[in-house]
Amino acid sequence: MYLGYVVDQELIKKDPHFRMGCVFCHKGNAKEMSREAAHKGMVRKPSDNLRSCMACHKKITDNYAKSLHYTTAGLRTGVMPRFSKEELKIFDEKVFEKSCRSCHASCGDCHVKGAPVSGISIGLIDKHKFVKKDEGKTCAFCHGGRVYPEYTGNYGGAPDVHYQKGMLCMDCHKKEEFHGDGTAYKTKSEVKQRPACRDCHKPGNEAKLTAQIAHREHEGKVSCYGCHSGAAYRNCSDCHGGHAAANPGMILGKSPRDKKTLTTLRLIPTVRDTFLPAGIKMEHYDVLPNYWDTPAHNIRKRTDRTRNCDVCHVEGKNFLTKEMLIKDGSKANESLIIVPKPINR
Amino acid sequence: MKRFKTLGLFLILAVTLLPALVAAQITGPIVSVADLEKNLTNPNVVVLDVRKVEEYREGHIPGAVNAAYGSWAIKKGELLNELPSIEDLSDLIAGAGIDKDSQVVIVGKTDTVPDQFDMTRVAWTLKYVGVPNVAILSGGQNQWVKEGKPLSQDMVRAKAKRFRASATGNLFVNKAYVTENLGKAAIIDTRAPAFYEGKEKLAFVPKPGRIKGAVNLPVGQLYTPEGLYKDKAELAALAQKAAGTDLAKEIILYCDTGKTCTSWALILKDMLGYQNVKIYDGSSMEWLADPAAPSEP
Predict the structure, then answer these.
(1) CATH architecture of B26-146
(2) Do B71 and A154 touch (CB under 8 A)?
């Protein structure tokens, strides 16, 4: 017997979602006796239409309709400066709505059944329970290419120190980040509720004097990740149009969003021919770099860079150089190169 | 008279309770579910759950602290299951509420063959850095669940102990050490016979074969059909065939990555009394990648 169906009477009794019967969400006709007739008009994923949940969860669904997980606006914002006006129109019609938007998460994708990623789904999260959160299944499945395996140490190196201490996604990322706060943000960098290292780790409270000095000296010059990212993370150099290429690496360079700050950079897979199948050449391809500041989720208290200043200041280990740049990449890439200065001892 | 009565009562209580207290002690490297259950309230016992955080949160032995396996053995370059830095291990162990006097019982899962050996690898690492009293739960979390024992979903935050790890003895050795001691120490390959004989190999091991002169003591022989550790007499008989009867002889064990061989190492050292037992954690991954390292067949 397949145990994934809702057959558990105890569950049906406990959870108010089931009191209205299957047809309340899934439609179809419960009075019909034949399989075909009963399933006529059935909706497989009711929460693809937020109205299904809105009847009871109005505030949350109103906010969620504007959240980045639902709108996927960040994808559009991230790439649109590369397009001419005409190209943006084509992008919006042919690419964003048909491709990027298909990645949006419905309520059910996080609370009932994992979203299909590249045609594969984890199925029901826990039979048909309405699960409040289960980061190892829901977050991990959509963010399983980069963030999650880096966080748990499955991409190599030690796990993030926060995972080591038993923390999962929602111990730092609050639910407002997922459900939204009612504002339609264009990109995640605008979101006010994003977690920051300083929320918990106040500068000046370090146990060791050397750590205090190091933090003070690098204040405003290097991001926390710049020193505390513990291992190579996934850099994707191409993943559209049925072909993919990714390699592990740690890259240090200027943040494209804040050129005064050195941080961890990640190669993002928008290459020159990414949108050619849709007829978009990307006339302004070179205004954006191929490397973006990344909050690498593999934080360690000690790294080779925290142990020895020379790793950066003499060896320049992991620093982006002209030789490392991807072939035929954006001309903006060079602006991220930073040459570390030796320390005056 | 009253004093005699009190003394008498004390003696009766002592005679009644002593066997129970003795029975509750953890002795040896392998602990049964029943013995662990009796020790859950023992303040010196730390139940260390090395499964993933997600699995721990779903349900764990009441009072168990979590420190997932990935923090105990890491990938370094091409090699899997290498030791983290000594400072990181200090933080990890102290943060889990463990110090040199703790009696640690390690609990992992046994869903797959590699999972099964997470417990012994962590046990060997703890011993290496100065926590001598370490045991593992026979059958791991799976056996605890199978026997219908209680589970908790409370996130246990251990009170950190003061502990500074330092390498004790040569429980882990490197390739140079093995090379130097070929022909002197007993080299034991704990992989399955087909791997030992060079008929099979795992994808990440560069070529089939074994360290020259190694004898075979497969980890599969450790367990009953139910996945529990065999009793001492059976294990001793198996061990003697490969390691001999000289308990003082130096023994170096290896496998593919330096993880599964820790199971026999723990049994040899802490159950059977072999005094000079070491792990070559570079194992086949490193040895068979070096054309200069003597191998066979």
Answers:
(1) 3-Layer(aba) Sandwich (3.40)
(2) no
